[in-house]
Amino acid sequence: MTCYRDKSECILTHVDTQGWQAFSIGPPLFFVILKWDKDLIIADLPGLKWPSGHPCAGNPGGSTWYIHRDTHITVIQEDFCNFVTGERGFHEYTIEDDPFWHKAAPKQPPAPSRPQ
């Protein structure tokens, strides 16, 4: 996900891998930014509008991302509706920085000291 404050939107691209190949799954999704401050970005993907009488009418679904810039944790909330049964639900996922990538990152050389 990449967010643009000036456009007030975030763009999510899903990439999957199979073996050594990487490929995109579908077109990008465009999220509307609801809040942007120094510690938190809230981006919302509106759900689909269903006609009245449809099992999912009244619950359009959608997804909201809470990107905590201070703690480097992202929480994803998804509303869903089963098209056949009309069952509704809510999922919440948390994405945290993996310690592996911090250990694997190249170390910055120390700043040169100045002669005194």
Strand tally is 9
Give the uncertain stretches in residue-range form: none
How many structural units, i.e. domains? 1
Mean pLDDT: 78
How much helical structure, as a percent, in the residues?
under 10%
Helix count equals: 1
Strand content: over 45%
What quaternary form is this? single chain
Rg, rounded, reads 20 Å
Determine the structural class based on helices, strands and strand pairing: mainly beta
Widest β-sheet, arrangement of strands: 1-2-5-6-7-8-9
Write the H/E string, N to C: EEEEEEEEEH
Distance N terminus to C terminus? 47 Å
The geometry reads as elongated
The main β sheet shows up as: 7 strands, antiparallel
What's a concise summary of this model?
By secondary structure, this protein is mainly beta. Helices cover 5% and strands 47% of the residues. The chain has one domain.
List keywords for this structure.
116 residues, mainly beta, 7-stranded antiparallel β-sheet, 1 helix, 47% strand, elongated
Question: Can you offer a commentary on this structure?
Answer:
There is one protein chain. By secondary structure, the chain is mainly beta. The protein has one domain. 5% of the residues lie in helices and 47% in strands. It has one helix and nine strands; from the N terminus they run βββββββββα. Strands 1-2-5-6-7-8-9 form a seven-stranded antiparallel β-sheet, with no helix packed on it. A two-stranded antiparallel ribbon has the order 3-4. The protein is elongated, with a radius of gyration of 20 Å. The chain starts with a strand and ends in a 12-residue tail after the last helix. The model has no long low-confidence stretch (mean pLDDT 78).
